[in-house]
Amino acid sequence: MLKPNGNLPSRFNNRIYLLLWSALIAVTAWMMYLGKSEIKWAFKVPRELRLNLKGYISDFMDWLINTADLGLFSFYELTRGISWLLEKPLDFATGILATGLMSGEGSSAIQLTPPLSWLAVIVALVMLGRYARDWKLAAFVGACFAYLAFFGQWQSAMVTLSSIIIAVPLGVIGGLLLGIAAYRWRWFEKVITPVLDLMQTVPVFAYLVPILFLFGFGPVAAMIATIIYAMPPMVRVTILSLKQVPDQFLDLGNVVGCTDLQMLRKVLLPSAMPSLMVGVNQVIMLSLNMVIIASMIGAGGLGYDVLTALRRLDIGSGVESGLAIVVLAIALDRLSQAFALHRDQVHVGNSSQSLFSRHAYTWSCLLILGVITVIGLFIPALQQFPESWSLTTGQFWDDLVKFINVNYFDQLEAFKVFILLNILVPLKRFLLSLPWPMVVLAVGLAGYQLGGWRLAVLTTLLSLFCALVGLWDKTMVTVYLCGISVIFAAIFGIITGVIAAENPRFGRVVEIVIDTLQTLPSFVYLMPVVMLFRVGDFAAMIAVIAYSIAPAIRYTLHGIRQVDPQLIEAGIVSGCTPWQILTKIKMKMAFPEIMLGINQTVMLALSMLVITALVGTRELGQEVYIALTKADVGKGIVAGLCVAFIAIITDRLINAAVSKSKKRLGLTV
Amino acid sequence: MHADNRSNNTKLVCRNVWKLFGENATQFLAGFSERAPELKDVTNAGLIGAVQNCNMEVHDGEIFVIMGLSGSGKSTLLRLLSRLIEPTAGEIYFNGEDLAALSKKRMIEIRRHNMGMVFQQFALLPHLTVMGNVAFPLEVQGVARAERENKALEMIELVGLKGRESYYPNELSGGQQQRVGIARSLAVEPDLWFLDEPFSALDPLIRREMQDEFLRLQKLLHKTIVFVTHDFDEAIRLGDRIAIMKDGRIDQIGTAEELIVDPATDYVKEFTKNIPREKVLTLTSIMQPVDSNLTLGDSYSADTKVSEITQVLYNSNQPIRVTNQTGETIGMVDRESVVKILMSGEH
Q: Are residues A509 and A588 in the same domain?
């Protein structure tokens, strides 16, 4: 629908924008022509302009730890207190699952009880799978954990699992409480929303730095990082699902005279339960992801194994541990998804049965567990998985890598060098040679064109921040690596998505693959990349593409599938060839959806990019990584903020573009 | 039938009740001390008048129907009556207490013991069984499990769902679900029963069946009922008195017969136009003074529906005699007046 005058100035505007952009490019070219020798300030941010933000932050943290006093106790005591509180349950869980309950400290500790028998744990998980869905899932989960046992990953996997068992409930409860508070009080929602936005765009490493500083090195600090990292989606899901509770249930609660607490407990939470469970699934998956990454600040387990293997470039054991993470992730994901969908909504007999017969399943499970545990005390093979039974694939992976390197080294190397020399290096040089004030201006202009004044101010300020804190070059390298990876991911992703949408059978396969890809912790992607391409920008790019391609595929697939069939029929009736239907109707209508997918891809790419610092890239991620090894909070946070700001700028620009094009296509925004 | 109800006490009274949406709604109303604001005043002030200047009384034991099309404000009015939303201005008295002035605690008290509500989309909690849903209001009150389940069972039996106590809502048909909704709303034995378009989401045949069920229950229970509907036929079928709403205002309140015989506005007239008069009008509204020159036929009481005597007048050309409750002759009805009624719907 056209409003009068609504469309008239746009042509005129377009011309002005064209003029502005040409002017911008011309000035930039002129500045580049003058070069560093003439106008140094345009290429290197002058010292007088710089903000010593990281200095302030570090000073503040020092003050917090050393002098801050909260009245009854000091801040330092507070953090130690929190650590102590969390340490107990974590120790207990680790004791039960992995090490056995200990008494005493360090090497003088005595084992009080052995850990749970591996068989008992597997049986428990199988029964859980059966309870959540069916025997098929039970068998799948059982097989996954049996894999962990047979391939020598049991001990590490149990350490990781015990962190998750403690971190997930805390993350879920914390997220629920914050979400409920935001639902209850409008002002709290207004306060917490931007915080959540920032938390979800700040790269994971950046979390680790202050936590390392405040809570020290070790499993507890790692778990705190995990909880903080995994909580934001739960908060969001809680707010959203409470808001989605139909009004009639609120009316019902009021009419029957619920108090506020009853309304929450008996009406709101139960009716929001299915969507809340989706949040729980997310918390589990994010916790797993973070527990792996947090091995850098002392979480043991599978993440630590991968990390040490990466550091030693020990491909064999790295891939093994990586696969164990994959297996654990998939098993936990399927299990928690089954619980999310599990609803006991078919009536079963009478409710007046005895306690035992109503919970017969639970009782028999507990009985079996007890029996296995007792037998385990007498038969060591049931207690601890016998080493002689375990298999290792480490040698196989080493051989595979050797084989690839011996036979395909030249091809791989040629490919890598070609891409590096022709695409990566020139792009990097070009971006680094741009005068920073012009880049900031360009970002601002794009913001104005797509979203008006407010967006322009936001994008300008955020990009200015990156320049003024003295991280401009690293920011540009981040943009370059992220940008090139996103471009490749988008090209492959959109093509795959289109083919998948046109060919249902291929589509189903693709969906299973991307579902699985998305459950894998980001760390895992590094292994095969290092295996094939060793370290450097190229290896990083491949890892980033692999990690971030899933949303590009998914949104394209979805966008094309949901194009109104009437439009396609209209196309057929007007005599379009299939190709014309694809390019002139489907792709056009799916464009906003595809852009949203690209947006997601950018977000994932940035979060992965930071992790690729481990394989030797020189961007903001490396800055954070260095900060982490030095426990330099200011440096870590500032670099983390720069990454977050790149993410926010892209996110806002893309979203503005999407809503513009949606409006044009007449789709509801 | 209506006459005896009206003499009873009023249960619910609405005085000058307003619900306006928009900025400064309260100041806007405060600005009118001389006269009540008209519809155009509200519109000119840029406000949305969901309910405007409503006055009504609901008598003990009657079925009071609020009828209006979508957007007429009928559901908002119902929500004001149960104080699910707060009025912008006006008073609502329930058993003599001004609801708007009550403390939260007292309001919860009243809702727990005196009000029941049936919802358009049933509002059955999906995680509870039929038993759990019906017992829910009692659970909220803190009634012990055994006691509340007994009561719930009684209600489930009352609405004819015995044997389905352990079913979940998603295992029931729409009609069955609304029976559960009705059972739940009755579990606290409310003296005021709200029904918000309870049958609108059902298929026409089921709707008819549920209306009969509803009348059967009311015959047993004699509740005071506020029933909201957008269906004029349903209003006539069920209501002792009907309030017709349009644009947030009540156009007219009256029995079906009063609305048909004497519509207050063209809008009301429009609704009544296609209603078969003979099924609504009683002999009272068409009888003439007795003409002593004529011999009268059989006697019928004054509240007999016209449709019940058409056959009689068709068979014989004697006018019938109309009597009051004590059996005195108060008038007569002849063929001609019945034919007039039968034809009046067609002009």
A: yes
